[in-house]
Amino acid sequence: MKVFAFAALAFATVAAAHAQDYPGGKTINIVVPFAAGGPTDRVARDLAEALRKPLGATIVVDNVPGAGSSIGAAKVARAAPDGTTLLLNHIGMATIPTLVRKPGFKVETDFEYLGIVNDVPMTLISRPSIPANNYKELATWIAANKGKINLGNAGVGSASHLCGLLFQSATKTEMTPVPYKGTAPAITDLIGGQIDLLCDQTTNTSPQIEGKKVKAFAVTTAKRLNTPLLKDLPTLQEAGLKDFQVTIWHGLYAPKGTSPAITKKINDALKVALKDPDFIRKQEDLGAVVANDGRIEPEGHKKFVAAEIAKWSPIIKAAGVYAD
Predict the structure, then answer these.
(1) Per-residue pLDDT tens for 306-320?
(2) Which pTM was predicted?
(3) Sign of the CA dihedral 199, 67, 304, 56?
(4) Of the chain's two ends, which shows fewer C-beta atoms within 10 Å, N or C?
(5) Is the predicted pLDDT of residue 204 greater than 90, yes or no?
(6) CA 59, CA 30: separation in Å to the nearest integer?
(7) Which domains does the chain show, CATH number per domain?
(8) What is the mean pLDDT of the chain?
(9) How many other β-carbons are positioned within 10 Å of the β-carbon of residue 300?
C-alpha cells in the first residue's frame, strides 16, 4: 500500500512539474478542421500569433478538413492530453452531435473547454437580379416563388448551410439547397445568377456587398452592426423573424484529461491574446467581434456550446441532413 501511495505521489509530482514547465520548449499545434485560406483558418493564424508571446512557444496551424469538421476534431480528441495539440473550431462543435452519425468522440465529454474567441455576424444576400431592394420586398418575392428558389451553401455543415436551414425553418419555406465545395464558388454562382440566395459570414460577403456585386437584405445578429458598410441593414428579427439569431463563433479546446494546471495556463494566455490590440484589429478587419464576456472562461464556454447544441439539433434533424 505504501509503495502504491509513493508511486502515486511521484506521478503527481512529475505531472505537476510538467504542467509548471509547460510548454517546455515544445511546439503547440492548433488543429483547424477546415481547409487553409478560409475564415476559420485565418482566425486560427491570427490567434496563434497572439498566443506565442504569453505562452512562450512556437505555435503552428494544422489544417485537417472534412466531415463537417469532425475529422480534425477527432484528431484532437485522440491526441495526448499534454497541451501540445489544441483545436480551434467554430459552430461545428454544436452541430457535430447531430450532423455527423459516428464522429468517434463526444463533444460534451471528450474535450477540455478553453474559451470562446470571437463571434462573426452573417448577412443574407441574393443575386443582383432579384426584383427586391429591401427585406419586405424579398419576403414577398420568396412567397411568390415557393418551390423555385435555390439556396446556396459552402457544403454540408458549413456556416452558410446552417444559416440557410434556420432561414427556411423561420420562414416556413422549403428551398432547393445547392452545396458547393467552399464559399468562393457559391458566391461566384450567386453573382452570376445561377443561385438565388446565400446566407454567409461577413468575412465572405462584405467585399461583394461593397462592390455592389450582390444585394444585401439583413444581418443575423440580435442588433444592427455598427459598421459603415452594414449599419443600415436591419436584423432578421426586426424584419419579423422572431428569435432569428446566428453568429459563427470560434472556440479553443484541448483533449480531455489535460491537467487543470495546463488548461489554466492556456486560458490565461487566451485572455491576454483577446486583449491584444493587433489581434482585435485583425478580427475587426474580418468583420468579427472578439469575445469579452463569460464565455472566455472554460465553464462559460461549455455552457454556451451545450445551449447551441440544443438550438441546432432539432433544426438539423428536421432537415434530415448529414455530413457523412
Answers:
(1) 999 999 999 889 888
(2) 0.83
(3) negative
(4) N
(5) no
(6) 7
(7) 2-120+248-319 (3.40.190.150), 122-219 (3.40.190.10)
(8) 91
(9) 16
